[in-house]
Amino acid sequence: MSTAARAKALRRRTKPSIAVRVRTFWVVAALVVCVVLAAGIAIANAPQLRVRSIDANVPSGGLVTKNAVITAAHIDPDANLWLLNTGAIRRRLETIPYVATAAVHRAQFPHPAVTLDVTLRTPTGCVQSSSGTVTIDATARVLQTDCVSALLPLVDVGAGPAVAPGAILAAPDVDRLLTDARTVGEHIPVRIVRRDRFGGLEAIDSRGVLLKFGSDADLPAKLALVEPIRRSVGLGRPLRVIDLRAPATPVVEFP
């Protein structure tokens, strides 16, 4: 055998096979994975990264307390600050009926801390139905049971299923009724605004007098007649009904 042939055969014997190279690669890869996992576990359990404090910024004067926000966030005090699911925390906060938006902020220094910021919904009216009374905001989200303030317009939508706080009230015509209630309330103190059986607008004022408006298309003009009618019948004489459905010929009824 020539010298060149012997050198070629020697190189063939000393060159590692594909199986050996693959085995070496997987051993190295497994070691790297183990190191990464160990480092990840160490970081996840590092006491320097555990949540040390949780605070909340809540608008003053609202009906949601700081403690209620922190409780709803449900953050494990032993959790790793940087492994918190902030999206899930935000969604939990937004299940509070009065919460409009929520944000979660993390800070590492001077110690691992979480700050929760919320904005609150504004009550715009109260809705009474056969299932009870609720307070709603401008989007018809139910904020609480009962009416939060006697200063809010109160409308009666008749029959309807119970709606839990946090849900959307699907009562038909509620937006228009609340608008009419605010319009009436600007002129006359009223207890409640509702529809009659024909779909016309009516209200019961603070004196217990039933005001029948019929169509609300000319509501301001009809409202302007109420006080003159009261004066015309005498302030000391009780009224039961003021019927303004035909504003040119209003009708009054006495007890």
Second rung of CATH, namely the architecture of the largest domain: 3-Layer(aba) Sandwich
Largest sheet entry: 9 strands, mixed
How many DSSP H or I helices?
7
**Oligomeric state of shown chains:** single chain
What value does the Rg take, in angstroms? Answer: 36 Å
Overall SS class: alpha/beta
Question: What is the CATH fold-level name of the largest domain?
Answer: Rossmann fold
Order of helices and strands: HHEHHEEEEEEHEEEHHEE
Number of structural units classed as domains? 3
Q: How would you name the CATH homologous superfamily of the largest domain?
A: Cell division protein FtsQ/DivIB
Shape: elongated
What distance separates the N and C termini? 134 Å
Low-confidence stretches: none
**Taking strands numbered 1, 2, ... along the chain, how are they ordered across the largest sheet?**
6-5-4-7-8-9-10-11-12
Specify the helix fraction band: 25-40%
Description:
Strand 9 (201-205) and strand 10 form a beta hairpin. The strands form two sheets. This protein has a nine-stranded mixed sheet. Strands 1-3-2 form a three-stranded mixed sheet. With 255 residues, it is an alpha/beta fold. The termini are far apart. It has helices at residues 3-14, 18-44, 66-73, 86-93, 174-187, 219-223, 226-233; strands at 53-57, 99-107, 113-120, 125-129, 132-136, 142-145, 154-156, 190-195, 201-205, 210-214, 241-243, 251-253. It is built from seven helices and twelve strands. It folds into three domains: 3-44; 50-120, membrane protein fhac (Ubiquitin-like (UB roll), Roll), CATH 3.10.20; 125-253, Rossmann fold.
